[in-house]
TrEMBL record, chain A:
It holds the Pfam family STAS. One of its GO terms (molecular function) is anti-sigma factor antagonist activity. Residues 18-110 form the STAS domain. Transmembrane segments: none annotated. This is Anti-sigma factor antagonist. PANTHER family: ANTI-SIGMA FACTOR ANTAGONIST TM_1081-RELATED, ANTI-SIGMA FACTOR ANTAGONIST TM_1081-RELATED-RELATED. InterPro entries: Anti-sigma_ant, STAS_dom, STAS_dom_sf. Belongs to the anti-sigma-factor antagonist family.
UniProtKB/TrEMBL annotation, chain B:
This is Serine-protein kinase RsbW. SUPFAM superfamilies: ATPase domain of HSP90 chaperone/DNA topoisomerase II/histidine kinase. Gene3D superfamilies: Histidine kinase-like ATPase, C-terminal domain. It comes from the Bacteria. The keyword Transmembrane helix does not apply. It comes from Parendozoicomonas haliclonae.
């Protein structure tokens, strides 16, 4: 449950241990990510493999991470389930974020 | 037997939850269950869940300013071979005219070269507008209802 992170190569992999990244989780997730950024973690990979539902608030939290990083770093996404992929597609956010089929591929730098 | 006589009557499920974001999952699961009775694909079912969650979130965050302890009602009106209507009602502040469905806003297509298009909020109802066949909003005697229709 909740969020956790680990260092792999030169990146920080953030695991979302929640099935739903919705409005009730958006603020805790954003705060967790902002804390990492404030600690100097700026190459972020978000592991979405356990998330089977995301709403616009969850998406907004990820967008706010991207904006917080600005040109100081990068946030990439990995292993989204179908419903989450569909949300990124519907909102054209798949054109903004680099989305990898797996964390391993995110770490090796191979995009979708 | 006439066509009208052969139509199955509609069935209604009425739910109510407290105005807590954590409780939207209860409505979401009920919607998934009813949608699973139809011929909707898994993708469509996911989208119906997304729409109802967005509208319930909107009621909690705007009609009740994020405060718990208030009532949100959800009606699912299933008319086999016709449509599924979902009505989300609250008793809080009515939706401002400029954001109601009749004054719909298109989803902002993000431009990677223009940070102003990378919005962190404000997409919910535009997503609902895009995915549902028809939506409308009414406010009457302190009860605000957001109606969503999906043809079957």
């Amino acid at each position: 449950m909740g969020f956790s992170n680990r260092q792999e190569a030169d990146k920080t992999v953030v695991e979302i241990g929640e099935a739903r990244l919705d409005a009730s989780q958006a603020t805790p997730f954003r705060d967790y990510m902002f804390d990492l950024i404030n600690q100097g973690q700026t190459q972020l990979v978000v592991d979405l493999s356990q998330v089977n539902f995301m709403d616009s608030s969850g998406l907004g939290a990820i967008v706010s991470v991207l904006k917080q990083l600005g040109d100081k770093g990068a946030v990439e996404l990995a292993s989204p389930q179908k419903a989450v992929n569909d949300l990124f597609d519907l909102t054209c956010m798949d054109q903004i974020f680099t989305i990898h089929p797996s964390v391993d591929q995110a770490l090796s730098g191979k995009p979708h | 037997m006439t066509d009208k006589a052969s139509q199955q009557p509609s069935q209604t499920l009425t739910l109510s939850i407290d105005s807590r974001l954590e409780d939207t999952v209860l409505v979401a699961m009920a919607v998934r269950g009813v949608c699973a009775m139809t011929a909707m694909s898994q993708k469509e079912l996911n989208r119906m869940e997304l729409c109802v969650v967005e509208v319930v979130n909107n009621a909690i965050e705007h009609a009740y300013q994020g405060r718990s302890g208030h009532r949100i009602e959800v009606e699912l009106i299933y008319s086999p071979e016709e449509n599924l209507e979902i009505v989300v009602s609250d008793y809080g502040s009515a939706m401002p005219e400029e954001v109601r469905p009749e004054n719909k806003k298109e989803l902002v297509v993000p431009d990677p070269h223009n940070p102003d298009t990378l919005l962190a909020s404000g997409r919910g109802l535009a997503i609902v507008e895009k995915l549902m066949d028809h939506i409308h909003y009414q406010s009457h005697e302190g009860r605000n209802s957001f109606h969503m229709f999906r043809a079957l």
